[in-house]
Amino acid sequence: MRVAPLPADQWGDAVDAALSGLMPAERRNPEATGNLVATLVRHPKLTRAFLRFNFHLLYGSTLPARLRELAVLRVAHLSRCEYEWQHHVSMGRDAGLSDDDIDGISRGELADDLDRAVLAAVDELHHDSVVSDATWAALAGHLDERQLMDLVFTIGCYGSLAMAINTFGVEPDSNMEAER
């Protein structure tokens, strides 16, 4: 671990201000937020800015939750980010992904045309930093312009987050079950 979670006795006004309005008071502590947020709050201003963007992608995006989780899980798999994978498997199930879908994400094999196009977009952005014309056309046959934009930013945000998690050495939360 390169950047440890901020110890509970160091959570002060700056941390509370960074998280206020984003999560309820009872969740603004290291036990309730988990290792990722407890690590990020070492830099409160960055945490607030990042979480506002991330929460838009989670709760305000035009992208259907199932497609968002499909993309996030593929990012986590390609990035070998166990923390992100573990958090989003349950979120993916809640959004309608089956165990077969989740297994297919790891293999890069899904039956549905739109699902395959989302996986292709993740793979292309991960490897080439651009979505190909063919993949864009396949996505555009199902998603509107704002959904396409939200998809690209979701992939980029969670790719960036996976890089941070892996680099900082954020450990999975003790209450997270390992699922692969």
Automatic annotation (TrEMBL):
Carboxymuconolactone decarboxylase-like domain span: 44-122
Any single Pfam family the record assigns to this protein: CMD
Single Gene Ontology MF annotation: peroxiredoxin activity
UniProt KW Oxidoreductase keyword: yes
Protein name (record): AhpD family alkylhydroperoxidase
Keywords: Oxidoreductase, Peroxidase
InterPro entries recorded: AhpD-like, CMD-like
Source lineage: Bacteria, Bacillati, Actinomycetota, Actinomycetes, Mycobacteriales
Protein species of origin: Mycolicibacterium iranicum
